[in-house]
């Protein structure tokens, strides 16, 4: 009988053929000896990402047509672990930090979120527009939801299985991080932030146009006030 994994790492991909094998190797090295699964949810990549994933032993490949949010929601639904982690595929998120995210959940928090804006965190990948947007959105969310986040436009985070169930995430696109943070605040989840350093993407280019991400994030932030 297959053993139930303790940690499920969900990775949404869109054209990440050049990154995904290195990511899987990095995760394997850090998680060696621990019980985990890696689930890749691909959004119609055209660069051979699926082929690359299929060549990886023990990695589950799922498909999603809609967007990053919907890919993550699908991955969470298919996962079997007790701790569920969202992680980007482009090698921006350091596998070493998985330990910090897992530690936050093991210490009793419902959600443990990477932050680029606390001591120890940072970014090589941020542009002035993204920096300004992320600061603006986090202030807005804290004002509207009474939270104390320092970063909420960042996709490296861990949750308990129960937290994901209770959050009932709905955002199919780029508003998914805002959906996570605003719903967590609404239902009173215990959230901790841990520092995270965002590296520059290794291969390929960003799938996230800043304006589109901004509009979808704003829509989610205001839409969820009515929950
Ligand atoms: N399945 C799926 N994954 C996506 C989509 N858009 C982005 N991603 C993935 O989401 C993660 C973050 O996207 P990325 O392009 O690096 O955005 P950036 O870091 O904000 O520039 C990466 O792993 C992407 O491959 C999508 O529409 N569908
Ligand atoms: Mg990226």
Brief description of this entry?
The protein is an alpha/beta fold. It has 8 helices and 9 strands.
Structural account:
This protein has 227 residues and is α/β, with parallel strands linked by helices. The chain has one domain (7-226): Alpha-Beta Complex (Spore Coat Polysaccharide Biosynthesis Protein SpsA, Chain A). The chain contains 8 helices and 9 strands. It has helices at residues 17-31, 49-54, 68-78, 98-106, 128-145, 161-167, 176-186, 210-223; strands at 7-13, 36-42, 59-63, 83-86, 111-115, 122-123, 157-160, 191-195, 197-198. It has a 7-stranded mixed beta sheet, sandwiched between helices. The protein has a two-stranded parallel ribbon with strand order 6-9. Helix 1 links the parallel strand 1 (7-13) and strand 2. The mean pLDDT is 97. Bound molecules: guanosine-5'-diphosphate (GDP) and magnesium ion. Residues 12-14, 16, 41-43, 64, 67-68, 71, 88-90, 92, 155, 201, 206-208 line the site of guanosine-5'-diphosphate. Guanosine-5'-diphosphate (GDP) binds next to strand 1, strand 2 and helix 3.
């Amino acid at each position: 009988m297959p053993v139930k994994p303790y940690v499920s790492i969900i990775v949404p991909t869109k054209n990440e053929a050049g990154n995904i094998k290195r990511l899987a190797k990095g995760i394997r090295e850090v998680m060696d000896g621990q019980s985990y699964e890696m689930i890749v949810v691909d959004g119609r990549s055209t660069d051979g990402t699926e082929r690359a994933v299929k060549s990886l032993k023990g990695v589950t490949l799922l498909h999603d047509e809609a967007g990053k949010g919907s890919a993550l929601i699908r991955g969470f639904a298919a996962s079997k672990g007790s701790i569920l982690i969202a992680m980007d595929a482009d090698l921006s998120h350091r596998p070493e930090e998985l330990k910090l995210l897992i530690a936050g959940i093991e210490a009793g928090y419902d959600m443990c979120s990477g932050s680029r804006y606390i001591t120890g965190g940072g970014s090589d990948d941020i542009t002035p527009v993204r920096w300004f947007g992320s600061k603006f959105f986090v202030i807005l969310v804290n004002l509207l939801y009474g939270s104390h986040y320092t970063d909420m436009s960042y996709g490296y985070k861990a949750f308990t299985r129960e937290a994901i169930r209770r959050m009932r995430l709905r955002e199919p696109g780029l508003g998914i991080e805002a959906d996570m943070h605003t719903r967590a605040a609404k239902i009173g989840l215990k959230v901790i932030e841990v520092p995270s350093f965002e590296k520059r993407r290794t291969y390929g280019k960003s799938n996230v146009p800043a304006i589109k991400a901004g509009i979808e994030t704003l829509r989610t932030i205001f839409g969820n006030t009515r929950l």
